Amino acid sequence: MFNLMRPLVRAIVVFGIMSAGMTAYADPITDAENWFNQIKTLKGRFIQISDDGAYAEGDVYLKRPYWSRFDYDEPLETVLITTKIWLHVDEQDQEKLTSYPISETPLGILFNENVKLSLDGISTTATTKDGVVRIALDKPTGDDAGMLVLEFSEKPFELRRWIITDSAGVQTVVAFQNLEKDMALSQRLFVPPNYQQ
Length: 197
Hints:
This protein has 197 residues and is mainly beta. The protein is 13% helix and 43% strand.
């Protein structure tokens, strides 16, 4: 796997899913939950930057609940696909598919049928500054320790980026651009390949 993918996949897999708890500021968190829950489909561009300087771009597709696709531009021949149960990492150049339980990733939080950002076992806080709403989900201890930060523009309230920091302090930023909502998306986008071994 390319070096770029290692911090992303490590961050996604190491920072595990959590269930319901307390929040410091209810309104921004509720707004964020509503933003996800009201989406039917979404597509746009993403830019991914790792703290080692690795950089990539690609197309993102979301069909709620559960399904998403992150299609990386060349030369990175990699696609991430989520389903109700799995996060699939498709390394197309090697015809290799690696799958992780979506429930053990922070993406499981965002793609659930009913998105809840008030979680048990972590600290959830929200701040607003200079028109940016920042929601941090911090799990400071345990094997799945880490932080997921969601950043939204305040007006209009739209997702700008998320930041995943794993227990080793490795940080991966994914920023979103040109997001379009509620268009028809083929279910075929979210079907992983069946490579014959």
